[in-house]
Amino acid sequence: MYKPVHVLSKKSTRQRRNVFIWCTDSHSLALGWRVDNDSPISVSTAYRWITDAVLSQARCRTWAEAERYTLFPVEIRPSIVMTYSVHKNGPGLSRESQDIIAPGDYGLYTIGDPGLYFFFSPVFSFSGMGEVVEYNSPLLSAKASLTPSIIQQALDRDRQCIFSGVVPSCDSDALVATWVFPPFLGHKASVQHFEPSHLCLHFLRFLSSPISCQMT
Predict the structure, then answer these.
(1) Cβ contacts of residue 73 below 8 Å, gap of 6+?
(2) pTM surpassing 0.90?
(3) Which of these, 11, 47, 52, 15, lies nearest to 166 by C-alpha position?
(4) Which of 13-17, 70-74, 128-132, 173-177 has the lowest mean pLDDT?
(5) 8 A C-beta contact, residue 55 and residue 5
(6) String of b and e for 49-58 (b: at least 16 CB within 10 Å)?
(7) 79, 130, 160, 201: most buried, per Cβ within 10 A?
(8) What crossing angle do the helices spanning 126-136 and 199-207 adopt, rounded to 10°?
(9) In this predicted model, what pLDDT tens digit does every residue of 4-55 receive, in sequence order?
(10) CA 22/CA 42 separation, integer angstroms
(11) Is 104 helix (H, G, I), strand (E, B) or coil?
(12) Are 168 and 175 in contact (CB under 8 A)?
């Protein structure tokens, strides 16, 4: 039975995540989800989800660029405090496979090259960006907060995960509501490139515009 070597977040533990995708460039954890009888995920589906995440976060611009990787099982070894090293540990997974992906750790490696896959590195999560805003300007953070009434409306409307279609089966599977496009990322609709140090300036410009009022 798979038991992760790396420390799990409270969210990963609560959601019983057991498949983890690692960036071989930065040796950092990028994606994670749960696979079981209630939520079977094929290898082919995993490839599609990962490629979509690469396109959303990475330096490549086309699907063909994003797909220049193979998914390999990897061994995760503890390094210094709260950091890990990633080591290839088995043959690559076929992109066309309809087999259910096995619980474990996987890394992205460039096709036809033993080298690392450089197109995918984690960026700020929604919660991480929210923390930046909250720290620098509580007033801006309040504007981007989900109100209890909005959360309840979303839960009443969907009643299942909108991405996987899984219906909660127990308390630990309880649905949570979050932004698909957080208001504090509105600057990305018009600003293609930005530095983290300029983040709050973009927030100010965004939140003072008429369009931001419509989006929020």
Answers:
(1) 88, 89, 90, 91, 93, 104, 105, 106
(2) no
(3) 15
(4) 128-132
(5) no
(6) bbbebbbeeb
(7) 130
(8) 80
(9) 888 888 888 888 899 999 988 777 888 898 998 888 999 999 999 888 888 7
(10) 18
(11) strand
(12) yes
Residue 201 one-letter amino acid: L
Range of lowest pLDDT (113-127, 143-157, 184-198): 184-198
HSE at residue 206, side-chain half, CA atoms within 13 A, is 24
- First and final CA of the chain: distance in angstroms? 45
What's the pLDDT score for residue 173?
Answer: 64
In which element (H, E) is residue 22 found? Answer: strand 19-23
Q: CB–CB of 111/68 below 8 Å?
A: yes
Q: Which of 33, 35, 45 is nearest to 8 (CA)?
A: 33
64 backbone dihedrals φ, ψ, rounded to 5°: -60, -40
Q: Are strands 28-33 and 84-88 parallel, antiparallel or unpaired?
A: unpaired
Amino acid found at 133: V
- Where do we find the tokens 């096995």? 102
Q: CA 109 to CA 107: how far, in whole Å?
A: 7
Encoded tokens for 207: 């939140």
- Residue 145: half-sphere exposure toward Cβ, Cα within 13 Å: 12
Question: Is 166 in contact with 39 (CB distance < 8 Å)?
Answer: yes
